[in-house]
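quick one if you have a minute, typing this from the bus. below you get a single protein, a line of residues and a line of whole numbers that encode the local backbone shape. could you go over both lines and see whether the tokens make sense for that sequence. anything you notice is useful, everything is just below.
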Amino acid sequence: MPDPPAGLERELAADRLTVDRWLGGRLELLQPKGGHRVGTDAALLAAAAGRPEGRIADVGAGVGAVGLALAQRSEQAFADLIEIDPETAQLAGLNAVRNGLETRVRVLALDVLKPGERRAGGLADETADCVVTNPPFFELGTVRVSPNPGRAGAHVLSREDGDATLAAWLRAALALLKPGGRFVMIHRPDALAAILAAVERRLGGLALLPVHPSESARAHRILLSGVKGSKAPLRIAPALILHGPDGRLTAEADAIHRGEALIDWGA
């Protein structure tokens, strides 16, 4: 493993970054100590995408956790980690090197909502075999924004031109996907109507999988999978329960967090 850059050494020494082992130690991730942290949503998204091969686009990649997990899972996979924040994108690049994936991973620090910026960055439309995304959950003006820039950027869609909506994010992500390619995302259940409206006539063969914090609690996340251009009908996959009555992860959820199991989308 190469020695870390001097700037990174200073960040580690100043206790602003941590080095964490994720998915049962399969990946080693540098991430901000006080910003947005890789957690359950990323583990669920990586498990939901399965073992894609070919070109993967991780839209809003953060420090690269999901895209790197998918690239690591298959030697036939090549991942584009797309992240608007330059410092976070730099961490994604360092994480690719740290995990020996730099030859199959490209980090693109750009605004995916801007087609011209995508083209200038070498990100062509309809070139991805699989697109995965964990969009910011809220739009500007709908929630109180965290004073921490990392958390704010991860949780709230915000751009200077004001054209930052979930629908715009999904249109941009789907523009990258080849006909016949697979799209996988995680979001809040209360955004489902907006999600279905945004992907209408773009995706078919939709599958929805509710994620519940416990058996008695309502779903707090929804996983969605679809195929570009498919005419197959929508179906509801078996729900995933994260915690048992004792508050511990269920066996299925624990295996997903350790990188030992993938999401079961059903028949």
Remarks:
- Residues 120 and 187 are 29 Å apart (CA to CA).
- Residues 6-257 form a domain with the Rossmann fold fold (CATH 3.40.50.150).
- The chain has one domain: 6-257.
